[in-house]
UniProtKB/TrEMBL annotation, chains A, B:
Its cofactor is FMN. It comes from Massilia varians. The lineage of its organism: Bacteria, Pseudomonadati, Pseudomonadota, Betaproteobacteria, Burkholderiales. It comes from the Bacteria. SUPFAM superfamilies: FMN-binding split barrel (SSF50475). Residues 15-162 form the Flavin reductase like domain. Keywords: Flavoprotein. Belongs to the flavoredoxin family. This is Flavin reductase like domain-containing protein.
Length: 191, 191
């Protein structure tokens, strides 16, 4: 934890995900922590804030989420490009030291079972809303956001500040096979 | 239709959405066409390609999608920033000339019930997979992509070319209240 990490009011939490970044999903169950990358995470509701995330049946994360009933969604930055690609392409089952090899440093937040990945720009702690049909038929998981935080150097007062923050804070958006785009220029549609 | 619009193989269709752009949802039923903006659309599966989109109960689009069992998801560009904001903030019920006022020009694709919005960068024609519980409890709709097209000036050979295309082709990513970001720099994570 550092002094730049501030709570985000729950009614503004959807803004952390609204621009469609690739995220990291962290989870913990029975003493096992894991982190995976997911491009398929999306806001679902404003109040209470909810989100969807696709967790393939082959992932260890899925078992941890189903076991613990909770997870954290966080936004990696340009600085974490390699980390994101590594946790997205390596398996904890095949490589027990996956997190260390990818350079993941975890931190804990009071009252949150899953660990948080250090140096991300924002974090959304979620409680799983069990929907067995969605989970089995579509690998689709629904979470209700119970708390959110952001690094004030890039998100503060309810707004992203990508245009004035250091460029290393930009969110990353995966296409396929390790090819990403960073978020770009701010644009304003006149009312 | 113009000569730049080319089919996208279904197994590459997820790449059109993977970076989390704000999209336009078009639909048609019983002679009524509509277009709305949605930031909450997300890939759900590769093969067959599926996606999720959140359609609020108050939208006319939702009734058209439920009535017709189909819709088109398309990606507006920087040039369509105002159009996107307008179709996302005006209602067809309150303003029957909403589409004309927003500058929407529609085109038709053979075999696709919903109209396509001209000058977008990519289009995904979808068949609704009815999931009444998701639709009622979460406003969450699942579509299976039956055909996809992209403008070859920005997406070709299975890849986005934002970094070399004219900047007006960039995708737009809504945060809140008419504040968007364009997609930015290409980044490659080494294997």
């Amino acid at each position: 934890m550092n002094e730049h990490i501030l709570p985000v009011p729950l009614e503004k939490a959807y803004r952390l995900l609204n621009h469609g970044p690739t995220v990291l999903v962290s989870s913990s169950h029975a003493g096992v922590d894991n982190v995976m990358a997911a491009a398929w995470a999306c806001a679902l509701d404003f109040a209470p804030p909810r989100l969807t995330v696709v967790l393939d049946n082959s992932t260890r994360t899925r078992a941890l989420v189903e076991g613990s009933g909770s997870f954290v969604i966080q936004l990696p930055t340009v600085r974490q490009l390699r980390l994101t690609h590594e946790v997205g392409s390596r398996s904890l089952d095949a490589e027990p030291d996956k997190l260390a090899r990818a350079g993941v440093v975890l931190m804990r937040m009071e009252g949150v079972a899953a660990p948080l990945v250090q140096d991300c720009s924002a974090w959304l702690a979620c409680r799983l809303l069990p929907e067995p049909h969605n989970q089995q038929a579509y690998d689709l998981f629904i979470g209700e956001v119970t708390a959110a935080w952001a690094d004030a150097r890039v998100f503060r007062d309810g707004h992203w500040h990508f245009e004035t923050a250091d460029p290393s804070w930009r969110s990353i958006h995966h296409i396929a096979g390790g090819n990403f785009y960073a978020i770009g220029e701010a644009l304003r549609a006149a009312d």
